Amino acid sequence: MTFLFSTRILKIIGILIGVFLLIFSGISSILFGLTDISWEMVLHAYTNFDGSNEQLIIKTSRVPRMLVAIAVGVSSAIAGALMQALSRNPLAAPDIFGLNAGASFFIVFSVAFLGTSSLSSFIWIAFLGAGISALAIYLLGSVGRNGLTPMKLTLAGASIAALFSSLTKGILTLNEKALDEVLFWLAGSVEGRKLEMLFPVLPFMIFAWLASFFMAKQVNTLAMGEDVAKGLGQRTIWVKTITWMLIVLLAGSSVAVAGPIGFIGIVIPHIARAMVGIDHRWIIPYCAILGAILLLLADIGARFVIMPKEVPVGVMTALVGTPFFIYIARKGFSKS
């Protein structure tokens, strides 16, 4: 099978191109929007701050949302790649397997019944919800003969997603106050996110990024199948457990900061595999770069669709991801 970057040199060149595009996208995220921003304004905001409206927008809005978009894009894409390898399911992703739904349920529950209202409080509640969802999926998928298998993991994920989604809709139907307060968060957005919201979960993200890269070789072996991995001497239960913990850190921290932004975890791993093949030592860094670029571009587009208002970035990623999801689903069914 032919890939876009088939040799090591080409893959390195691809990463360098990706880094350039990421930098360009990040700069564009700072400059473009309802308020016109120039390079000089950006430099003066950090070297000669005068309190002007433009400089305040740069320091309190544009730069923080750019950094949040990069962190969430990287984490969501890597989480999707790991989930697809672990479940051997091309449609696996944190939003499909219920991690986002679990985080959303806990947020809505805390607003409706505990009176939680600050976004800073949402961080840890969402992180807890994603972790509990992941634990439930892992335990359900491990029950029975042969332990954790891709099919049982997929069924458990779909069941947990349906359960928490139904519970969330039930609470929102009965409590209009909760609906008003969390509706924009549930759509997924990086608007209004401050660095104070990113910093508490950033260490978890960075640790998971690095650990995912160092686990890539073991993930490659596991992706070949349970029997093959055991035949090669791999302790598959530990690899699955560690990989699942990394998925929790990546998906949970992403949802905690930006809400349940979907489809990045589905779309990006497929694009990465089309570029570099099935080696996760390359898939993971490509996912990191491409995930950040996609979310940055989606956020830029969200500012212009209904200007002067903004569309939640989760809506923009859905516009890109839904056709791709349908394509992958049809392709999978046609082979079965």
TrEMBL record:
Its main location: membrane. Keywords: Cell membrane, Membrane, Transmembrane, Transmembrane helix, Transport. It holds the Pfam family FecCD. InterPro entries: ABC_BtuC-like, ABC_transptr_permease_BtuC. The keyword Mitochondrion does not apply. The keyword Transmembrane applies. The chain crosses the membrane at residues 12-34, 66-84, 96-115, 122-141, 153-174, 195-216, 242-271, 283-305, 311-329. Signal peptide: none annotated. It is found in: Cell membrane. It is a multi-pass membrane protein. Belongs to the binding-protein-dependent transport system permease family. FecCD subfamily. This is Iron complex transport system permease protein. It comes from Ammoniphilus resinae.
